[in-house]
Amino acid sequence: MLHGYLPSLLEGTLVTLGVGLVSLAIASGLGLIGAVAKLSRTPWVRSVADGYTTLIRGVPDLVLMLLIFFGGKWAIDKLSGALGWGPADLSPFTAGCLTLGLIFGAYLTETFRGALLAIPPGQREAGLAYGMSPIDVAWRITFPQMIRFALPGFTNNWLVLVKSTALVSVIGLTDMMHRAGSAAGSTQDPFAFYAAAGAIYLAITSVSLLGLKALERRVSIGVRRAA
Amino acid sequence: MELAPLIDAAPLYASGLATTLQLLVAALAFGLALALPLGVARASSHAWWSWPVAAYTFVIRGTPMLVQLFIIYYGLAQFDAIRESVLWIGLESAWFCAVLALALNTAAYTAEIVAGAIRATPAGEIEAAYSLGMTRQQAFVRIVLPSALKRALPAYSNEVIMMLHATSLASLVTLVDLTGAARDTYSRTYLPFEAYVTAGLVYLGLTLLLVRLFRRAEARWLQHLAARPAT
User: Fold this and answer.
1) pLDDT, tens digit, for every residue of B91-114?
2) CATH of the domain at A54
């Protein structure tokens, strides 16, 4: 099947998942910081966060990816030259994860901000009134509920992120899409390979959807529903 | 920043911008024309109507647009039956393939938006139409559809912006759109920041412009849903 290229495609799938998960971790971190910054009382902190989300969401992923990969390469080269180090390099994996993390950090900022706003302020006040420290309140009261409210938006962002990892093949990372492309070139059978790549992406998104549905049920334990 | 090479590249960026806008307008026009019947079918209570559309949107929304574009541009060309058919007149050109991929993509997302808006029609509006003696068809054409399309506007504005960004993929099938212009400028001057930041700023400007246009459209057509001042 697939002219013997199936193992190579599956190996590429692991790279795709790796880029996706590392980017998701970076994006979640940036998203949390961004959400807290957007709700800050200090005006300049809010402006920085607003600038970040506006800028990132206004420019196509592909352009940001190329900018960070080629621009970052150039900057690292200049920097290591100025410091007298040898030639340095930015790998496609690193550049891809940084770019996707930066992009989806902006989208998750909005998701997390909305989730934080959905928590009734009385709960935080009640925690403080019981004598919990602000960190205890954040860890025990705010954070677990934020996950509950953020999960639907988080699911959407992960699905879009998985599909966006295909763009990393453009800067030379040998992910699934890249392998499908080289197999297509050497076998003259592009239709089969791109269709196979599509089927694997569809499988990843479907499985994620089921997994996150189960997680949603778990974090929604205790939510009262109207009968 | 070195600006001199950018001034030389200005005509390239201008023609790239024109290509980007042409792709966007063509894809949105075909996509919307396809999405309206698909969305109505998706919202139908007859499984024979809604399921095929559900399958279509599942496949399109579950796979990267890059894969769809490459299947159309590289994949279809390998079949003799297609190369010898009348379809080849279009599929031979990268521009047509890009518009086709973008249109099929946006049709799936827009169909779901339209279907969601139709399903969200307040029951009272439909009952009012029936009680005035309208038939099901009349109520759908006169009441449900116009009100649903208006309510779909905010979600559709996001979709249009996503489409603007998706047109950048056309640069990967040899087209010289804004992103393509940036790539050519970079390979000619070796100035990555200048080349890509310029393209990025133009996209940002276009995005902000679209946001403003849709805000005005919403102010005009969604006035009845705006929050009322407290009395």
Assistant:
1) 888 999 999 999 999 999 999 999
2) 1.10.3720.10
